[in-house]
Amino acid sequence: MKKNQYSVFSPLHYAVSINSMKMAKLLILHGADVNITDSSACTPLHLAAQNNYKEMASFLIKSGADINAKDKNGQSPLHYGVPNKYRVLTKFLISNGADVNSRDNLGRSVFHIAAENKSVAMIKHFKSLGGDINSQDNQGQTPLHYAIKNMRTM
Fold first, then answer.
1. pLDDT tens across 104-124, in order?
2. What does the alpha-carbon distance between residue 105 and residue 24 come to, in Å, rounded to a whole number?
């Protein structure tokens, strides 16, 4: 295990997970690494994105968080906001430099994840922000393949 890697959460991960801005500011003021990872290689920004904590995400980014950091599955904070359909948060992340065409370890872009989660609105949203709707995952499948596959369960 790397020196900066916690098995569960670092104190900063915990502060972010409960959306305690006061605690997060105090920890960073006293030297907490804003890009510290847990055992899944998630950073505090991943947690902020997963929980739709836009103000916390903004603070972490201003404090130097890597907006395109990848977890052990190759997913960035942007990937974390997509399944929950956090359009405001994902737009914010993209406007601050998140790569809309970023791929995870399976080659999936945020388009694939949006299609997998049956979110036509998110797909339109990413397309309007310059994402590649025709991107292929490691199996050669496009977001359209994912959408068709998931239509059976809609």
1. 999 999 999 998 888 888 888
2. 30
